[in-house]
Design brief:
This protein is mainly α. It has helices spanning 18-28, 40-50, 66-75, 93-101, 114-169, 175-192, 204-213, 226-229, 237-243, 246-260, 266-281, 302-317, 328-337, 345-353, 355-364, 369-383; strands at residues 10-14, 33-37, 54-57, 84-88, 106-109. It has 2 domains: 10-139, Rossmann fold, CATH 3.40.50; 170-383, Hypothetical protein af1432 (Orthogonal Bundle). Helices cover 59% and strands 6% of the residues. The chain has a 5-stranded parallel β-sheet, sandwiched between helices. Strand 4, helix 4 (93-101) and strand 5 (106-109) form a beta-alpha-beta unit. Mean pLDDT is 87; it is low at 1-5.
């Protein structure tokens, strides 16, 4: 049977006097693993490699004095947590105050009483051990919280894409439409966050939420009858009124989910609010002629303004089972004409400046002929 004996805590004694080193080592050897150093310049290197539990440090040494050694130890993240006890013949109050200012945890003067030395070294070892345990526990908790957050974010992303894809199966859009509009929104956020009108809103957290929620923009279409949703022609006035209900249907569904999750936390509240803004207001227009509320200008939430341009651009350039694709340059001109009418002028300006990046996204996630054939077959089966 193999026995595992507890490892003794270690003490590093630093003193340029061999006699002092021998005396201190003799007092501590029965209780600690003792390491020694005779020069201050060695101490930081030894402390990094050996990681002693406590350092006993003389002040008066020929190369670096104890104060400078202590300062260097405390300045290095690998040694800053090791408790330093000054052990010195300097008994004046100013020297003691300076030592404590340098970061020492204690100051012991010679001649030393063995019982006092052992008691104080033990006390600081225990304090350091407790502090180390707390740091390890905190680091573990932080790691676990971070891991759980990543898991929840991944689950949230999967759930969002699943819901959005479910809505897409009933629509004339393809799954790549969700990916493209998601990347368009991210690109707009990236360049608008430097704009004074947007910089306060577009922090990293909100951008992440907006990109995450973009695929949900048409989730309310699941509540629209197939005869209207899949109609390849123009809507009658009555049909268009029904179609215009999809932002409200989607917003209300998410509001019900938010009510069920009430009390989960501020992060979840902001997620739901941004998602509802995208779903409910992405058909609003800058001049107030959109729906469902006829909002105008800055009354339209920022996430919805970005989603509006992303959605329209993609609708213009992408082929559908009921229409041909539009050339990028022609779509560019339509977006330009909508500046200040359909779209926020600053959002249009960013789009125009970086339009080639939008075109690259459209190319990267372009629908294949197979995608369109499957969608056409679905629509054909649904309307017959």
């Amino acid at each position: 049977m193999e026995l595992f004996l507890p490892v003794k805590p270690s003490v590093l004694i630093v003193d340029d006097s061999p006699d002092n080193l021998s005396l201190m080592a003799g007092l501590l050897l029965n209780h600690y693993t003792v390491k020694t150093a005779t020069a201050g310049a060695q101490v930081v290197k030894i402390a990094i490699t050996e990681q002693p539990d406590v350092i006993l440090l003389d002040i008066m040494m020929p190369d670096l004095d104890g104060y400078e050694v202590c300062r260097r130890l405390k300045a290095d993240s690998l040694t800053s947590q090791i408790p330093v006890i000054f052990l010195t013949s300097k008994t004046d109050p100013d020297s003691e105050q300076l030592g404590m200012t340098m970061g020492a945890v204690d100051y012991i003067t010679r001649p030393v009483t063995p019982a006092i030395l052992l008691s104080r070294v033990k006390a600081h070892f225990m304090l350091a051990a407790n502090a180390k345990t707390m740091r390890i526990n905190n680091e573990y908790l932080e790691f676990e919280v971070s891991r759980r957050r990543r898991q929840m974010a991944a689950l949230q992303n999967v759930t969002i894409l699943a819901l959005a894809s479910l809505a897409e199966t009933r629509d004339s859009e393809t799954g790549n439409h969700l990916k493209r509009t998601q990347h368009y929104v991210e690109l707009l956020c990236k360049h608008l966050r430097r704009n004074p009108r947007f910089k306060d809103f577009l922090n990293s957290e909100r951008i992440q939420i907006m990109v995450q929620c973009a695929p949900l923009h048409d989730i309310g279409k699941v509540g629209i009858p197939d005869r209207i949703l899949l109609n390849p022609g123009r809507y009658s006035a009555a049909e268009f009124e029904i179609m215009k209900a999809h932002p409200t249907l989607g917003r209300d569904a998410l509001a019900n989910a938010q009510a069920s999750a009430a009390g989960e936390g501020e992060d979840e509240d902001e997620f739901f609010e941004i998602a509802k803004q995208i779903i409910y207001s992405h058909h609003e227009k800058w001049n107030g002629s959109g729906y469902p509320e006829g909002l105008a200008g800055d009354a339209i939430p920022i996430p919805a303004r970005l989603m509006a341009l992303a959605d329209v651009y993609d609708a213009l350039i992408c082929r559908r089972v009921y229409k041909h694709s539009m050339p990028h340059e022609q779509a560019l001109e339509i977006i330009r004409e909508g500046r200040g009418l359909h779209f926020d002028p600053d959002v249009v300006d960013v789009f125009l400046t970086w339009n080639r990046e939008f075109q690259e996204i459209a190319t990267r996630f372009a629908d294949t002929a197979d995608d369109l054939d499957k969608k056409a077959a679905y629509i054909g089966a649904s309307v017959t």
